[in-house]
Every structure is written in C-alpha cells, then in structure tokens.
Write a structure and sequence with these properties.
Radius of gyration: 21 Å
Strand order of the largest sheet: 2-3-4-5-6-7-9
CATH superfamily: Aldolase class I
Structural class: alpha/beta
CATH topology: TIM Barrel
Number of helices: 13
Number of strands: 13
Oligomer: single chain
Strand content: 15-25%
Distance between the termini: 5 Å
Length: 348
C-alpha cells in the first residue's frame, strides 16, 4: 500500500489578535443577591480574570485609554472581547456605549471586530439585532452544558431548551456564535460532553472554549465538595475527555478556541481542586491529534517506520515533556520533522 498523506484535522481560519475587556459578573442575573439560589455553583469571575469589580464607567474609561495607547504606538487592528459578565444584560444603554467607543476606533483601523460573552437566557432577538447593527460581530454563550441534570445541579436558572434557544437567537441575528463548555460539572459525564460538542456543531457554533470545572475558594461548589457532595474530575480524565471532544469538534468544522483557563495569579490562589495544568491545552490537543493519526494509521494497514510530521506540529506529536511520543512508538511509528504541511505515514 502507498504511503498515506494526511492533514491536521483542525479547521483552518485566521485568528485575530484579541484585546479582552473583563467585566466581572456585570449584568449577570446569577450574581443578583435576590436570586433564589444565588450565583452558579462554580463561578468566581474575579478570580478567573484577575480583575476586580468596578463601575462600568471605569471600565469604559480604561478601555478608551488602552485604545489610545494602542493607536499611539501604531498598533491594531485588534478584536475587542467583552468577557466575564452578561453583556446583553448590562443596564440600559451600556452595551451601546461600549459599542459606540469600539466603532470610533474601528473607523481608525484600531479595532477590527467586537465580540462579547453572555448567558443564553438573556438573548433577546431584537436586542441582538440592534447590537449587530451597532458593530457587534460575535457572541460567545456561556452554555456550560446542554445537560438538564448538569444545569439543574449548578443552579444555572435555565434548562437545555433555553440554552439551544439562545444559540439559535444569536445565529438568527446574523451574529457569529461561540460556546463555552465546562467539562466535569456536577451532574455531568463524558458522554454529556460529547453530546454537547455535537449540539454545538448542530447549532452552528464557529468556536468552542473548553474550561474544565475547577473548585474555587469561596464558591458554593467549594462548600459542596467539602460536604462530600461533589468530586472534580481527575486531571487524566479531563485530558482524555477534552482530547476526545476536541477531535469531535475539529471533525465537525468547529474551532476549539481555548482549552483550560489562563494562569492568572488570582485563579491559581483560588483553586482548591480540579484538573488545572499550565499545559492543559497542549496536552489535550496532543491527545486529539494522536487519536486522529492513530485512526488513519489503522485504516492504512498499520504501517511501521518513519512518520513524517510538519515542523509546526511536531510539539503536539511529541507532547508536553514528550509524554505523547511513546504512544507513537507503540504503533511502530518514528516521528521525523519535514518542511511540508502534511503528515506522511510510511508504506504498509
């Protein structure tokens, strides 16, 4: 059998430079003290973003200064990302103020696009259409899971029907859709996660972020774990599950925009338990790529010998601290870098 030519399964596409604007808990109905069950079990946006809660006016002024600095040194264009809260549920007039500022710098070539995060149950179609007209390009929905059991266990305040309706509302407004998923939630399973990936593809998501559930100090989830009501996924399970899910999304044409949370000092201080690792993204991607290539190796008749790998993908083949290399060795494959853009299995 002739040597098999393979390509990386990850969807191609340009990744813009992103300037994140963190608005911790701003507009989020789950952060309202009057909400019957309080905030979601797992959430602490201040720890995750490293940002403290400030007035929206302070955030707007800070963003204007950042954009002025960027313009002053000839930077741009960047995409603005409003994260950490529910942008579509900000008090009246505030989404429009942020978008008006973005539009002014867009005209100068400093801002290239605008995206925001929000909850699926605050996606009014008329509001989304209006915000699109003001310059919003993409909405990243904090779905976390489409599992009814997981959503109920986490006190999200809505069920899977609302999660799907939010996704459809974003797409119907002509906006690009991103989805945040949280593997390892109370009430969730690996099968739920794979089903979530399928749902994202079916609903037209362009990108997905996979943020495994962590137990953060001071959250309701920390108290649930202390009482014995919750056990986070071990790191090995989270890596395996996210590797499987990443490949599933890639094959459906969905980009995986992030694997794991960034190493903010405030986050690291707050983690009590859960599958956090500084190289979580690379380790999960390496697993996804191995599953893809091992399947092709089997289909090609299980050849053995030198396996040619594009230089840019060699780190993912070798893996973090060479942890993935033995898997290829067990298949009888010896990775060798080359200057082409494709993988080449040896002849069977």
């Amino acid at each position: 059998m002739d040597a098999a030519v393979l390509h990386h399964p990850e969807p191609t596409g340009q990744r813009p430079r992103l300037l994140p604007v963190f608005l911790p808990h701003a507009g989020c109905p789950a952060a309202d003290a009057a909400r019957p069950k309080g905030r979601c079990l797992f959430c602490d946006q201040q720890a995750q973003s490293g940002q403290t809660r400030r007035s929206l006016a302070d955030h707007l002024a800070s963003l204007a200064r950042s954009l002025d600095e960027l313009a002053g040194r000839g930077g741009g264009p960047v995409d603005l990302g409003f994260y950490g809260g529910a942008f579509t549920a900000l008090p009246d007039g505030w989404p429009e103020r942020f978008l008006a500022l973005a539009a002014a710098y867009r005209e100068r070539g400093i801002v290239g696009g605008v995206r925001c995060s929000t909850r699926p149950d605050v996606c009014d179609p008329a509001l989304l259409a209006r915000l699109r007209g003001l310059g919003l390009d993409m909405v990243e929905l904090g779905v976390q899971s489409f599992s009814a059991a997981a959503l109920a266990a986490c006190h999200r305040g809505h069920g899977p029907d609302a999660a799907r309706a939010g996704c459809r509302a974003v797409r119907s407004a002509g906006l690009r859709l991103g989805v945040h998923l949280m593997p390892g939630l109370p009430g969730g399973s690996v099968q739920d996660l794979l089903a979530d990936a399928d749902a994202c593809a079916d609903l037209g998501a362009e990108a997905v972020r996979l943020h495994p559930c962590l137990v953060l100090a001071g959250t309701p989830l920390a108290r649930l774990r202390e009482s014995g009501g919750y056990a986070p996924w071990p790191l090995a399970k989270a890596l395996a599950a996210c590797g499987l899910t990443t490949l599933r999304l890639w094959r459906a044409g969905v980009r995986v925009a992030r694997l794991g949370l960034a190493a903010e000092d405030s986050l690291l201080r707050a983690i009590l338990a859960g599958p956090w690792h500084p190289a979580f993204g690379q380790r999960a991607r390496s697993r996804a790529l191995f599953l893809h290539l091992a399947g092709a190796w089997q289909a090609a008749g299980r050849p053995r010998g030198a396996f040619l790998v594009p230089k840019r993908h060699l780190p993912d083949v070798i893996g973090w601290r060479r942890e993935t290399a033995p898997r290829y060795a067990r298949l009888g494959l010896t990775p060798r870098p080359h200057d082409e853009t494709f993988f080449l299995l040896p002849s069977a």
